[in-house]
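Hey, I'm writing a tutorial for new members on how sequence and structure tokens pair up, and I'd like a real worked example in the thread rather than a made-up one. If someone can provide the structure for the chain below, I'll link this post from the tutorial.
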Amino acid sequence: MPPSLKELIQNLSLLPGIGPKSARRIAFFLLEKPQSTAERLADSIGNLKAGVSFCQICGALTEQDTCMICGDISRDISKICIVETFIDQIILENLNYYHGLYHILGGTLSPLDGRGPKQLRIDSLLTRIRQPKVEEVIIATNPTPEGNATALFIVDLLKNYSVNLTRIGLGIPVGGDIDLLDSETLKLALEGRMKIEKHVDG
């Protein structure tokens, strides 16, 4: 096998859900297509890395300083929904049910993986919640051990803030991921979100 083909297969195998067999099929597919097909793909990947950054407010992916949702004056600014990843935000947004704002943590607390509060967008979350117009914070981390630990950390962090805390969960199985659930289950989870009782210090 030519070294360049072998290298492409190895790199394609690094993608999520792409094993060696799938990587080979993609590589041979590209070989059978005109040179322009491979060039367009390479350009798209290059443009993605060069042109996409994080929203300065919520952490979503955007080509501007501020994402479209944060810049939309029709959104309900009294609600902030906390999610783990940009994919989770896209899935919830595609439901066309929730019309508040989002805050993307960029992962979960996971000491084994070297992710603590400093590695997540916690400081910017606190800055946003200090705004007087924020009334409800919806915690939509996944019901995994890491997601639950992150949710508990956020609840403890916000216990002295004058905001309502709620947690989605109805219909979401323990250990489940938001991006694997159907839209009806997610709508029910948002509709039936549960209020979290805060134990305020002092």
